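During the reporting period the student researcher (J.K.) took over the structure-prediction task from the postdoctoral fellow and processed the backlog of single-chain submissions. One of the processed entries is reproduced below for the supervisory committee.
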Amino acid sequence: MDTITPPKHVKQVLFTLQSRGYGAYLVGGCVRDMILGVQPNNWEISTSALPGQLMELFENTHTSGLRHGTVTVFIGKHSVDVTTFSSGWDNDESRPPEDFSFVLDLHTDLIRRDFTMNAMAISGEGIISDPFGGMQDIENKCIRCLGDPDKRFEEDALRMFRALRFSARLGFEIEENTLAAIYRKASHAASISADRLRDELEKLLLTRSPETVEIVLESGLLDVYLEPVQLSAQELCSLKLLPYKAMDRWCMLSYLLLKHGAISSAENFLAMLRLDRRMINCINDCIALMEEPAPMTALEWKRQLNRCGVEAVGCASRCRDALLDMESYRELKSILRSGECFSLKQLAVDEGDLRALGLEGAALVESQNFLLEYVMEFPENNRRELLMYLAAAPED
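J.K. obtained the following structure tokens:
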């Protein structure tokens, strides 16, 4: 294991708890990442101290996760989530309170977790507690459910998505029995809230192996949202050719599902998953653009940019390139770098200038559109004096 030392504020919380006689350990993903030699993004501490005791012990706390026994402790500008040892579920809002209870020992707290690699702890002194073979599974690059995988997935169906996401992110294989259980228990995914499912699926799409979504589709984990579908490996591998951008990867997935009849509408599919409305609208525009031939000239690119905006046109061109091995995005970037006008705000005259000429209403709009089309075709003529002359010229 590569040595990664927790930050000072994390050590301070650990040793403050230990000095008062409480058990306190780093747990979960930060332990896994430390063993992998990866700097953790978040630090999680589990302790025998109850939430009320944590709030008495530390001056600055926040209790947004109190239902799970979690208290956020603030040390200066930093924060650490500290959670009381517990049994039952982990981070599932749908489970009733009676399924959850505080406990006093680390072993019971660890045994409730999802996978062996996430069921390890490290004390403030750096001693590793690994009662379920997580270290060995990490060395073998194996994702294995802790205990009976069918039971684990029945407890929280989101764990099936987490297994696939970890596999895609870490390059680990899912252990045979665990993978088989995903197929057996896929129907339980219908109980997952749209928000939780969307977040987990997006995390998977943003990994280095987003084509792992094939198992999501094949196993039926998304059957409540779409018709059964089988996408080719080549099509799914186009996902990994895209930048690590949620917009691009949601767009590509939606396009492929729509193309193969798994969904009738990208808008409805994404709305059911409760994506942001702005992103949904942009993806709709992207998919429509992907159905069109790619622009062939600078003028065609500028007309498309004016009609749909930089974000949608950029996303559509990147998706088209990934799917069809084209280089249209390079052409688009050349247009954007040129600084040539494709929108009213880039015109050398503004609405006030045209109103000063006495243009109002429909005449004003018509003049703006005429000048924009003219400048898009002749970019070197985007000069105020010339455009004012053209706008003031009488109609034939």
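The committee noted the following: The domain at 141-224 is CATH 1.10.110.30 (Hydrophobic Seed Protein).
J.K. will present the remaining backlog at the next meeting.
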